[in-house]
Amino acid sequence: MLLNLPLLPSAGGFPLRDSGTHAAGSPDVRLVETDAGPHLFVVGGSRVYGLTEDQADDFRAAMAAGGEAAARLLADAGLDGPPAIADEPPTEMPMRSLSLAVAQKCNLACTYCYAQEGDFGGEAKAMPPEVARAAVRRLLGECPPGSKANLAFLGGEPLLARVVLREATEFAAELARDRGVRLGFSITSNGTLVRPDDGDFFERYGFAVTISLDGLGDVHDRQRPYKGGAGSFARVVENVRPLLAQQRRMQVSARVTVTPQNLDLPQTLDGLIGMKFHSVGFSPMLASPTGRGQLQAGDLDAVLAGMIACGTAFERRVRAGERYPFTNVVTALREIHRGTHRPYPCGAGAGYFGVSADGRLSACHRFVGDAAGDMGDLVDGVDRGRQQKWLAERHVHRQEPCRSCWARYLCGGGCHHEVLARGRPACDYIRGWLDYCLGAYVRLLTARPDYFAAGNP
Amino acid sequence: MPSLDPKNLSARLRYRAAGNPPTTTPVSAIANCFPGLEFDFRNLWRRIFVGIILHEADNLVVGVEPGVSPTIAALAGKRLVAVNGVAITAAVTGPQVVGGPVTQLVPAAFLEWTNALADIVTRPGATVPCTFQDDDPATGGPVGPATVVDLTVRAILTEGAIARDAVQPGELTQSLCSPWQNDYRECGCYYWAASRPDYVNVDTTGVASTGHNWLQKDRDPAVKDYFASNLITYEELFRNWPGLLRFVVQGNDSE
């Protein structure tokens, strides 16, 4: 859906505080011990195999003896072969997704915002309509007939630029139809400015609408107040309720930024799913510009426990044949089932770019106005030299110590923006979550194989 | 060690039977639109139209599906010559000998399915007019008046996988190459992919190239191209392929 979302809610890689935890294991394999019997996760190609108890004993012994013994055992089992991921970065990545910072300003004052209350630390800006049209032409000009592309509206708060947003959408839909491109639309909004006619518009164009909600009532209000200090929850819920009832083509989802102040994840998940959001996902706050709201090591243990509690509730519902749209686990199960393996956490700087109000391209929406992620401009297109350097430097094989981590091709090395700002403080959390998800995959594949039938999840 | 049990899609895709080298997995297989060694994708086209069964490499209707209407049942044995008004055969012209006059060589040669049906494969569920003629046993081409029947396009892929009703069990491995008998010898065009080179150590500095051809009886000296007289013949191949081909086992030619 939106922006080539990574498999994980947020950053990944390797922890500073426990760089030795998996030294006795193997960078090539991971044992998944579950009630459904022992399984093996083969890192290259993200492959999952069932093991007999004897085979599991062999792998346990080999992993205790170190990575080389495990690699030999893998070869004995006929599971070796050429590397699944090459060292070389991809070349000539075509642009397939853009996000427009149509309004580099916001009416909220969230404590942790990467855009620093919407203006990215500079002056508030609005994207002129001609810049939005140029972005659309740039995106669709690079898409051959039959290809898929996505246009996202972000900010700041994009509904502060409603006129530009709608005009760009209509222009893009028409151009995409002419060119035979299947174009999807998405928006991430704080929900405070949503009107009923926005619902009609989003429904007409089949938007993926993401509403930022950090909890229920006061929990949300503490993190996401208006600039004057008043809470925003009641207003958001009132505005969004008609859209939730209206969704057919559009999908209205909730995204929860997790900080030390809203750690009761099961309650939040249940509450938001109960409000009929199409799906609900969590994003741990790992790096905020001011440091406020950032999760610390102890907090991450609580986040992991909460995520696993939510995942366990999800498993229970799926076994009972019920829908329980907890985005993080749905995405993880889908990707594990496919065996997705990749050298990057997302498409940032590869097929996906952010566009600033003044028409500059950046590696993603978070790098708007940041020289570290500058990728050229709309007039001349992507700066291929900078892009190639970015893809070379950000490749997970170039990240230390990701290279020796078993989760590297599921995680991709962690959100570039967070890693460049704060390093990799959440690796234990990420491995813990992936370990849980691998177990959940094996359990559900055994108990409910129909869940993984074509087209589902 | 007995095989591990592949569970997720990437494990299943990389499944390798015990003893097989990595080149036998689908990702490295010779399994394209020509008869392959592992599976023959041309069979995907046999049931592209609901009701009739086509030959995988010809426009002949080899059968019909159970329970079809009399109109469709009557198509068995006919040749499909146009789909949606577009001919799927073409006249072939050219010289009979080098430098000779251009003449018509084949009046209605079949265009292979992948190209002939490219326009309709993306429209599963659509109904398209299909034009049939009788089969002329003398020429192997179409003959007689045209019959137009509307047929429904079947999805051959769903969610990136082969659709269950597009091929029956076993069909993907029908019509495979029989490389140790005939087909490898037949392919004199250096067709085989890089994973199975048929001509190696090639030196192109002279007028004609020299190198090692996989069919040469004596592997020591480099010979001139594959026309050299010391290549294994069809008959020799049929009579003694294991002895002549000397499969490489554990890095050495077998005796």
Structure description:
The complex is a heterodimer of chains A (457) and B (255). Chain A has 2 domains: 27-84, no CATH class; 97-362, TIM Barrel (Alpha-Beta Barrel), CATH 3.20.20.70. Helix content of chain A is 39%, strand content 16%. Chain A has helices at residues 53-65, 67-76, 116-120, 129-141, 162-179, 196-204, 218-223, 233-246, 265-274, 297-319, 327-338, 384-394, 408-411, 416-422, 427-447; strands at 29-34, 37-42, 47-50, 97-104, 125-126, 148-155, 182-189, 208-212, 251-258, 280-284, 352-355, 360-362, 374-377, 381-382. In chain A, the strands form 2 sheets. In chain A, strands 4, 5, 6, 7, 8, 9, 10, 11, 12, 13 and 14 form an 11-stranded mixed beta sheet that branches. In chain A, 53% of the residues are buried. Residues 1-24 of chain A have low confidence and may be disordered. Chain B has 2 domains: 41-173, Roll (Pdz3 Domain); 179-253, no CATH class. Chain B has helices at 9-13, 70-73, 113-116, 118-121, 179-186, 234-245; strands spanning 5-6, 52-54, 61-64, 79-83, 86-87, 89-95, 102-110, 127-136, 141-152, 157-158, 161-162, 199-203, 210-213, 223-224, 248-249, 252-253. A 4-stranded antiparallel beta sheet of chain B has the order 5-4-8-9, with no helix packed on it. In chain B, helix 5 (179-186) crosses helix 6. The longest helix of chain B is centred in the last third of the chain and has 12 residues, at 234-245. Chain B is globular. The mean pLDDT of chain B is 82. Strand 3 (47-50) of chain A pairs antiparallel with strand 1 of chain B, so a sheet runs across the interface. Chain A: Its cofactor is [4Fe-4S] cluster. Chain A: This is Radical SAM protein. Chain A: It comes from Limnoglobus roseus.
Brief characterization of the structure:
Chain A is α/β, with parallel strands linked by helices. Chain A has helices at residues 53-65, 67-76, 116-120, 129-141, 162-179, 196-204, 218-223, 233-246, 265-274, 297-319, 327-338, 384-394, 408-411, 416-422, 427-447, and strands at residues 29-34, 37-42, 47-50, 97-104, 125-126, 148-155, 182-189, 208-212, 251-258, 280-284, 352-355, 360-362, 374-377, 381-382. In chain A, helix 6 (196-204) crosses helix 8 and helix 10 packs parallel to helix 15 (427-447).
